[in-house]
Design a protein that fits this description.
Number of strands: 6
Distance between the termini: 12 Å
CATH class: Alpha Beta
Number of domains: 1
Mean pLDDT: 87
Strand order of the largest sheet: 1-6-4-5
Shape: globular
Bound molecules: magnesium ion
Largest sheet: 4 strands, mixed
CATH superfamily: 2-C-methyl-D-erythritol 2,4-cyclodiphosphate synthase
Length: about 190
């Protein structure tokens, strides 16, 4: 794939978008987990896995950008292997698939919509958890539902991911000597 596209005038970048929503669960013992951060005492979300909406939206953004389908195709919720799974491990697996397909993540940006808990105090921890897995800067922003009907019954997350073809990170659109050497050495 790299040899087919290197030298092309097209920029070797891809953008992907992901969205996820989970309703609150009736089980008071179920923890809320967001970007790998566990919030004890907050209402948890219903789902086949740990219902980490931020991780799930990030998986779909990555897979969408790389043209690798979506989270349901990679980790079907009919498959008991993923029951109760740590969604950050699903994100790690998706990031590995994206890397195998020849893409490096440039950055990701997430907006999580919920009224509580406040995201700002945990923003850096969440972003750091995600950044380690995708090997790129990630930002996490929280938005409140502002009383809009239908938004307060669960937690939603929107995510975008920018990918760059591996080996072209230093080319910046021109076939630089360093980039050519990176291509040759692959
Ligand atoms: Mg989900």
């Amino acid at each position: 794939m790299l040899s087919e596209t290197s030298g092309s005038a097209k920029p070797q970048i891809r953008i992907g978008q992901g969205f996820d929503v989970h309703p609150y669960d009736d089980d008071p013992a179920r923890p809320l987990v967001l970007a790998g951060v566990r919030f004890d005492g907050e209402p948890g979300l219903r789902g086949h896995s740990d219902a980490d909406v931020i991780a799930h939206a990030c998986v779909d953004a990555l897979l969408g950008a790389a043209g690798l389908g979506d989270i349901g195709g990679l980790f079907p919720d009919t498959d008991e292997r993923w029951a109760g799974s740590d969604s950050m491990s699903l994100l790690a697996a998706a990031a590995a698939r994206v890397a195998e397909a020849g893409w490096a993540v440039v950055n990701m940006d997430c907006t999580v919509i919920l009224d509580r808990p406040k995201i700002a105090p945990h923003r850096d921890t969440m972003a750091g958890n995600l950044a380690v897995l995708v090997d790129a800067p990630v930002s996490v922003k929280g938005k409140r539902t502002e009383g809009v009907a239908g938004l307060a019954g669960g937690v939603q997350c929107h995510a975008v991911a920018l990918l760059q073809q591996r080996g072209t990170e230093r080319q910046r659109g021109t076939q630089s000597r360093a980039g050519a050497e990176m291509e040759r050495d692959r």
